[in-house]
Amino acid sequence: MISFTSRVDSIVVALLFTILAVPANAESMVGRTILPFSAPDHHGQQVDLATYKDAELIVVAFLGTQCPLAKLYSVRLQEMSQQYANQKVAFIGVDSNVQDSLTEIGAFVRKHQLTYPLLKDLGHVVADRFQARRTPEVFVLDQQRIIRYRGRVDDQYVVGLVRDHADREDLKQALNELLAGKKVSVPETQPLGCIIGRARQPQQNSSVTYSDHIARILQDRCVECHRDGEIAPFSLTSYDDAAAWGEMMAEVVSEGRMPPWHANPRYGHFSNDRSMTDQEIQLLTTWVKNGCPEGNPADVPPPRTFVEGWSLPKDPDLVVEMRDRPFTVPADAGKQGVAYQNFWVDPGFTTDRWIKAAEIRPGNRAVVHHIIVYVHPEGKGRGGDSFLTAYVPGLRPQPLPAGTAKKIPAGSWFRFQVHYTPIGSVQEDMSKVGFVFANPEEITHEVRTTEVANAKFELEPYKSGQVVTARSKSSPVELELLSFSPHMHLRGQSFRYELELADGTKQILLDVPHYDFNWQTQYRLAEPFIVPPGARLHCTATFDNSASNLANPDPSIAVRWGDQSWDEMMIGYFDIRLPLDQASQSPQGRRNGGAPLRTGLNVPELMKRHDQDGDRKLSRGEAEAMPLLARAFDRVDTDQDGHVSERELETAITQLQKQQNR
């Protein structure tokens, strides 16, 4: 259900922090001669530019060990170095980051299996000579060592997006033109990536220091992700870390790209609001402008403490792996990708269990797009399910409010729904989920996750601002809203939740004016919002299927509902809580009416009842037992494969209910 575009989730998260177009230089470096230079490689051996006197062309690539794009392009440069080896083209990597040691450079070389040298540019002398600013940034030198091309490797990666392929391979084009004796048709492009970490001379009299100000801001806004072992590409837990990334931080914060928070501040108050205040932004900007001074280390606040390996408030009471052996992800699964995997696990619960915190930890973030864990109270493959927890970028686990928990009935099975994306090499994954249990005697309210959705829409080609709406049934009881989780894919533009009371008045609860597919944020209300009986939730989404949407996989096609990121979805997830006496009166499970505002029916039960051959889809013959479906079979079978899947059936039922609720 929830899908992402990136091949590597940590790379996608990092792209929002690191990828920005470099501003135009005051003076172009193309046409300038580069004097010989030398620097040590990761073995400590000096490598001299003069060594490559026989090379017709030299590619000098500035890289960094922690920059997500540098990681991707270091491998691509390795492939190119092999492709052009017989054409007298040499490749040299240069790491000018003050924060990258020879040991880290060596590990980088081994991990990415690089055969071209990667040099440590002490004091960023080489970077200054080239006026290099980003990683990755490449330069092509001719035999006279004159710069003939400067910029990006290609255009595959744009702000916040890993595209399926490059439309223009700039570096290859430049090399091919030069080798053919031609001038480079596009001699300069804008590189994308991380700012090179240069050493700075701090102002000792600065009114803003790391110890007094910046450490506190980073602890409050950043280190939850920017620490060892977490999703961010580098740590910000020490002065050296922060100073090295200072200029990059100032840039993305001033642009509003970090910290990731997209809610309109005019509506609602949220406990997990990550946005920086104007004062915090000004302090960070001033600190960087003043050379990132450290201040008195004794003034640094105590570090935040985290559970090792988890973001839970304590060590999990129970850890459940998705199965007894790793799942093998192929190197390539073709255009359709790896089919969604469903792994069933019996946790062996003989009594009802109450969960106050849960977290999914992917075993291999390189290939795991997302994971949803569902609870099946009636056992494996039976009855309805309920949404328990998910792993998506931007979603940080947080304990439920005191006295509330999610219920897992005795005898329930877990279903791990996992979406994998191949990365070009065979990989294995063994993901898991950890739980913190609540004391049943302390529970007064049950929490359930449900949704308002519209699965019957079609986006026109080459058009932005296309509106899709959905609304819930009227709530039969008073309930409390706890959080909102809007979900769309690559064409998502904006999303809004509104509450309509029985008298027709409306109130905006959450407004996301600039939806960002790379951050599947759960907006948690600071205080529960009371929904009176008779109220409905309205969700309004807008989509941009135009060519101006750089994330758009193909603006020329009409787009409908689908699981993959090149399809679209329109779902307004939300958490509600009910007093135990009310919760006990409705069945467990989001698909069988367990949540008062749920829009769907018990589709799994319908499938189970009529799926005679057990293939988890309905043939035309099996559909004859449902006259309405039989008559509309060809319209419901949207992929025209001669069968109706569970998703296609739920889509049709959702649209029917929407029409009935008008």
What spatial order of strands do you see in the largest sheet?
13-22-16-19-23-30-25-28
Portion of residues in helices? 10-25%
Strand content: 25-35%
Distance between the termini: 26 Å
Gyration radius (Cα, Å) is 27 Å
Which residue ranges are poorly predicted, with pLDDT under 50 across at least 5 consecutive positions? 1-26, 589-601, 657-662
Main β-sheet description: 8 strands, mixed
DSSP summary: helix tally: 14
Structural class: alpha+beta
The total count of strands amounts to 32
C-alpha geometry: globular
Q: Overall pLDDT, averaged? A: 85
Short overview:
Helices cover 19% and strands 26% of the residues. The protein has 14 helices and 32 strands. α6 crosses α9 (278-289) and α8 (246-254) runs antiparallel to α9 (278-289).
What descriptors fit this protein?
662 residues, alpha+beta, 26% strand, disordered N terminus
Description of the molecule:
Strand 4 (57-63), helix 2 and strand 5 form a beta-alpha-beta unit. It contains 14 helices and 32 strands. The longest helix is centred in the N-terminal third of the chain and has 16 residues, at 68-83. The chain has 662 residues and is an alpha+beta fold. The radius of gyration is 27 Å and the shape is globular. It has an 8-stranded mixed β-sheet.
